[in-house]
Design brief:
Blueprint lengths: L1 H21 L3 H4 L1 E2 L13 E2 L5 E2 L1 H5 L4 E6 L7 H13 L10 E6 L6 H11 L5 E4 L3 H11 L1 E2 L1 E3 L4 E11 L5 E6 L5 H12 L12 E3 L11 H29 L1
Parallel strand pairs: 4-5, 5-6
Antiparallel strand pairs: 1-7, 2-3, 4-9, 8-9, 9-10, 9-11
Length: about 250
């Protein structure tokens, strides 16, 4: 919780004045509109990391789905978000592949399968863990349905988007959100079990972390943000390593 608040406060402190001057307000553009029970277009076409045509329905295979909206080549905290989810997975009983599916869902239509492969290389390509890319129409059909709002800033060539994980039931309905970088394992397991029963609920703490740590006034990251991004990279590596170690240990 402390780390979440630190990220949030630093984002506000380092970006607030510059955005006020530029007229682009990422905190207003990047938000989540709660839509429990919303029908998700799980048959929309996407490409997996190998460039094969697939869909959320095909990947879920009748199981709950954890959908993490990301930029596969993200300069900010997307990697830390995925690592945080991986850490939460290790701390609870349900396993990807057998009990649910995890999807790193690319929101940038300019990214292709290579970017998805790069992301999988970082998070560990195992059963039940996937990375998708797609065309703008298909991407927007999903993000609009689940109430996930993000915006492109032409000045700096970045998307402002929130760090959060959507939980989707086997029949393709949004059951809730896990907010922030590192969900509590108990919250994640409860979210998945609720999705299994196809009930809607609200999970975690509704504190949105903005993945947009950049100062357009200077054209650089501030020193504080640069340190945090390096820390986030370390967290990503540690989280992925722990997940792979624990999964191998359980299957040994």
């Amino acid at each position: 919780m402390i780390l979440r608040l630190l990220f949030f406060c630093l984002a506000l402190l380092t970006t607030g004045p510059a955005f006020a001057q530029s007229g682009f307000d990422p905190f207003g553009e990047a938000r989540i509109e709660e839509r429990p029970g919303a029908r998700v277009p799980v048959d929309a076409p996407f490409l997996d990391a190998q460039g094969r045509r697939t869909s959320l329905r095909a990947l879920a295979a009748g199981k709950p789905l954890l959908l993490v909206p990301v930029l596969h080549h993200c300069p900010n905290i997307c990697g830390a978000t995925l690592a945080g989810v991986a850490q939460a997975i290790v701390g609870q009983k349900l396993r990807p592949g057998g009990d649910f599916t995890l999807v790193a869902f690319g929101i940038d239509p300019r990214e292709g399968p290579q970017a998805a492969r790069d992301d999988l290389a970082r998070i560990g390509q195992r059963a039940g863990i996937h990375a998708l890319t797609g065309e703008r129409k298909a991407i927007r059909s999903v993000t609009d349905a689940i109430g996930y709002h993000y915006a492109w800033d032409d000045r700096i060539g970045q998307y402002a988007h929130a760090a959060a994980t959507a939980v989707i039931s086997p029949d393709g309905r949004l059951t809730g959100w896990l907010y922030g970088l590192t969900p509590r394992p108990a919250d994640l397991e409860r979210a998945l079990r609720t999705a299994q029963s196809e009930r809607s609920a609200s999970f975690g703490e509704a504190l949105l972390l903005l993945c947009y740590h950049y100062d357009p006034a200077t054209g650089r990251y501030t020193p504080a943000i640069e340190k945090i991004l390096r820390l986030a990279g370390g967290i990503t590596v540690a989280g992925i390593g722990l997940l792979i170690f624990r999964l191998r240990k359980r299957t040994a």
